[in-house]
Amino acid sequence: MIDRFLDNTQVPVCGSKLVIFAKRYPNETDYSRIVVKMRQHHSYLTILASNEPSGGNHPEILYDLASKTNGMCVFDDDDNILEAEDQVETVFHPSLVYAANPQVSGNGRIQLPPLLVQDDSGYFFTMMMQDNVEPDSCTASDPTTFLFAYSNDFDPSLVSSWLRYIQPNNDVLPHYSKFASIRFDTKTEEEFEYQNTFDEFVTIVDNHLPDPSLSFDNNNTGSDILQIIDRFLDNTQVPVCGSKMIICVKRYPNETDYSQIVAKMRQHHSYFTIFASTNSSGGNHPEILYDLASKTNGLCAFDDDENISFAIDYVDVCVFNPYLVYAANPQVSGNGRIQLPPLLVQSYSNYWFTMMMQDNGPMTVVQAVVLSWVNDNDDGQLGKNGTIFSSGASSGNHIGNWKYLTAESYNMQLDYNYTDSKERRVQIRVHGHEHPIDYWVPYDN
InterPro entries from the entry (predicted)? Predict the structure, then answer.
């Protein structure tokens, strides 16, 4: 309906204001075209959506669409919709003078862009304090599920060898109350296997190693990994809230719409580490894996098949360091320096720093990528400068290492130098294992 209105030629669209009453939620998740059109026409909307829907699955799409187009989305009971309309009276105050969509989590304070007022007058302030998607109620330290998913296109001996790299140590093992596994990229979709102990989990995986006779017939077929993630998030047999996944990908997906998975993973505070082969067996869109990880506080490592064992060992955030304490996805291009949000450390301990220096493009474009952290009492670095590594070990697009941190705030900075001018996001994560944290790290879009 919105799309049709924006395409109409009978009335002016530029600067138009829309008030929309929604009783039924959409099922579609791709609204990128509407965002482009609304921004092109400087059109924005106020959606008044019922908390008692008559159908549909994705109320979050309404809120996200409004956020990205300087609009607003109200959720309320049917009986209160008219009162809500009075309190969000853009009809009587049609001239927008300020818009901000700060991302928040837990508690704290955030400085917003300044409000510049040109005339002495009365102004109407409106704030949506949350969308209507209630996140799961688990905490970051509650026991949860560990999922290991692996492509059927890998050599069976490789998958078997990876099992020794993903065994949680005794400190971390209590964090996982359930274990799950699945083999994907098979002609016939397989079911998840759920276990209560890690030993049972190992036995199941060893009995379901890749079988070439089950593989897709050609390399034009894309991976079904996105459907696998979606199915796991919808399961009711093991805890999903706070779940951690290790996903080994040999074949890339062909689909490009992953917005529904992002919404579900954020709702459940679930995240993954993807280990993707640079020797793909098929599929067209490796960038989808990296983008999906960026938007859900995950990581996506690209490496040769033979080095994935090394990658699992050096990006061991699920099995040895399951507690995320910092996430940033700075966008960089060419060369320069960027100041990142500060890192707040709650407990003196050893922390694992991980950085994905780029997506799956050739590593020859990376001249230098160095992450620095400093305060009055401590400092450190992680990264590479030419052939010299500031710290840690690297293979593929990833680098990681342990660092002791004191219980205080650190200023974070990224220096970078790429030989091309392509815009790319660097994934930076800090995880801990000795001191479970009591909050969910906000997402960096």
Answer: DUF7154
Q: What is the pLDDT along the chain (445 residues), one digit of tens a residue?
A: 999 999 999 999 899 888 889 988 888 888 888 999 999 999 988 888 888 777 777 888 899 999 999 989 888 878 777 777 666 666 667 888 898 999 887 778 889 999 888 888 888 888 888 876 565 668 888 899 999 999 999 999 999 999 888 887 777 788 899 999 999 999 999 999 999 999 999 999 999 999 999 999 999 999 999 999 999 999 999 999 999 999 999 999 999 999 889 989 998 999 999 999 999 999 999 999 999 999 999 999 999 998 888 888 777 677 778 899 999 999 999 999 999 999 999 898 999 999 999 887 667 888 999 999 999 999 999 988 865 555 555 678 988 888 999 999 999 999 999 999 999 999 999 999 876 677 899 998 7
With beta carbons less than 8 A apart as the criterion, state whether 349 and 431 touch: no
CB neighbours of residue 66 within 10 Å: 23
pTM of the model: 0.73
Which CATH fold would you assign to the domain 140-320? Rossmann fold (3.40.50)
Question: Given this structure, which CATH class describes domain 2-87?
Answer: alpha beta
Q: Are 168 and 150 in contact (CB under 8 A)?
A: no
User: Quick one: tokens of 229?
Assistant: 């993630």
For the chain, the domains span 2-87, 140-320, 321-445
Identical fold at 2-87 and 140-320? Answer: yes
State which CATH number among 3.90.1300.10, 2.60.120.380, 3.10.150.10, 3.90.870.10 fits the domain covering 321-445. Answer: 2.60.120.380
